[in-house]
Design a protein that fits this description.
With 196 residues, the protein is mainly alpha-helical. The chain has one domain. A hairpin with a 2-residue loop joins strand 3 and strand 4. Bound molecules: iron/sulfur cluster.
């Protein structure tokens, strides 16, 4: 199905489908966020750089997390993708929009008691980079026990890396909000209205 909101100024959604009214509302909200960020983009270079650092950090994290998941998820009696409610938070979306990445076509949160809508027969259908941070950083009790059994409570400095990324996500959000606020209260060279 054609992506209803595709265009240079709009985000592209994955997969390209509009879906239900609720999903369309999500897509429209993301279009509004994208427009706002694009409008202030000349002020957001630092935030974009932080988003790139976050992405690199997540790429480094993924290898170790995936190794852990390969050893636990298939045997899990209560998969967290079924029992937990997760969602894309504002910082997830900020990073995706700042980096002009594909945006998931819907929010992850399903109704209470329903499995995550992105869960497929072979696990999460979302590419790693598109998953909610709360999924990416989650180390379940079975994985913690496994790490302890291996005698390596934190094999790749996972905890430190997760805290570092948490901090960077906070910095990125703070930077965006501060820049947009400043852009709105002071004359700016990129706003045609203010140039007159
Ligand atoms: S987004 Fe993916 S990893 Fe996160 S709960 Fe849903 S299926 Fe699981």
């Amino acid at each position: 199905m054609e992506n209803a909101f595709h265009g240079d100024f709009f985000p592209r959604f994955w997969p390209e489908t509009a879906g239900s009214a609720r999903n369309r509302q999500w897509q429209q909200s993301n279009c509004a966020l994208k427009r706002l960020l694009n409008h202030h983009r000349p002020l957001l270079e630092k935030a974009v750089a932080t988003a790139e650092t976050i992405r690199r950090g997540i790429d480094e994290l993924i290898h170790a997390m995936e190794a852990l998941r390969r050893r636990t998820c298939r045997f899990c009696p209560e998969p967290c993708c079924i029992t937990n409610t997760v969602w894309f938070d504002f910082r997830d979306l900020l990073a995706m929009h700042l980096l002009d990445e594909l945006i998931p076509f819907r929010q992850a949160a399903a109704e209470s008691g329903e499995p995550c809508p992105f869960l497929g027969h072979h696990g999460c259908r979302l590419p790693w980079r598109m998953r909610p941070w709360m999924c990416l950083k989650y180390i379940c009790p079975a994985q913690r026990a496994l790490m302890k059994k291996d005698g390596r409570p934190d094999p790749a400095g996972l905890g430190d890396q997760i805290i570092k990324i948490e901090d960077q996500r906070f910095q990125m959000e703070t930077e965006v909000i501060a820049r947009i606020r400043r852009g709105r209260t002071s004359p700016s060279s990129f706003s045609p209205a203010w140039r007159q």
